[in-house]
Design brief:
Layout (H helix, E strand, L loop, with lengths): L1 H24 L3 H5 L4 H51 L4 H26 L6 H15 L8 H21 L8 H20 L6 H24 L12 H13 L1
Helix pairs in contact: 1-7, 1-8, 3-4, 3-6, 3-7, 3-8, 3-9, 4-5, 4-9, 7-8
Keywords: Membrane, Transmembrane, Transmembrane helix
Pfam families: Bestrophin-like
Protein name: DUF4239 domain-containing protein
Length: 252
């Protein structure tokens, strides 16, 4: 509910800013007599609009690409988790049950504990301990019970650490603040520019500029929501790890 209100508020704020600029600046003497050079006004306006479109488009593409990367890394780790769980099935029963129980415990910790921490750009120490517990239990298997299944599980477990590091590397991969500032400034200039250069404050022009302001406000909020792949409402969830839990039940 709060997020929906935020979207509405930003959209209305953009519209209000545009309408306010039109009413305030559109009543000047220059707006009424139209003394500006049309070619110069058109050129400058296109530059301002292009700057906003360029920065906004870059941030949207970058944010969407980052989301795809984060989602891909999460699925890679979940896939390796299922692989470790499967390989552990060939170990001796007493070793198999311990390794599989700790793999399940780690997966649930990632879902329930670490994923909320990722929204605060932090990895969970508890998740690290759960994964290290898997490694410790595996290293504790006596040599007489080691064989091909042990080697295959060891290789998968090593790969799991690599995939976890890759996923956590995405936590701080967000757009630079300077680009966000540039986008907001460009958006304000887009809305203020028409009345500044002579757009009269008649009802039709004010309404059109209000619609433009709503679009700009909505677009800016969309970029802010999209830039962080771990923050709601446009965040990547732990669905890959939930699928891994479902896969464990199939492998049991």
């Amino acid at each position: 509910m709060l997020i929906a209100l935020l979207w509405i508020a930003c959209t209305l704020f953009g519209a209000a800013l545009a309408v306010g600029a039109a009413l305030w600046l559109g009543r000047s003497e220059r707006s009424r007599d139209g003394s500006f050079n049309p070619q110069a006004v058109g050129f400058a306006g296109s530059v301002v609009l292009s700057a906003f479109i360029l920065v906004t488009g870059f941030l949207i593409v970058g944010g969407w690409s980052l989301q795809s990367t984060v989602r891909g890394h999460a699925h890679d780790e979940a896939r390796v988790l299922a692989k470790v769980y499967s390989r552990a099935g060939d170990l001796a029963p007493q070793d198999r049950d311990v390794i599989r129980a700790r793999i399940t415990d780690y997966t649930r910790t990632v879902i329930d504990v670490e994923w909320p921490d990722l929204a605060r750009h932090q990895a969970s120490p508890t998740a690290w301990r759960r994964l290290d517990a898997v490694q410790a239990a595996f290293n504790g298997i006596p040599k007489e019970r080691r064989g091909e299944a042990y080697d295959a599980t060891a290789a998968a477990l090593d790969d799991l650490y690599v995939k976890r590091y890759a996923r956590l590397a995405d936590v701080d991969s967000v757009a630079p603040d300077v680009l966000l500032v540039a986008m907001v400034v460009a958006g304000i200039l887009v809305l203020v520019y028409p009345p500044l250069v002579g757009m009269t404050a008649n009802p039709r022009n004010v309404a059109l500029l209000g619609f433009a302001g709503a679009v700009v406000g909505f677009g800016i909020l969309f970029v802010f929501q999209l830039r962080d792949p771990f923050t709601a409402p446009l965040n990547v969830g732990p669905s890959a790890f939930k699928d891994a839990l479902a896969r464990y039940t199939q492998l049991a």
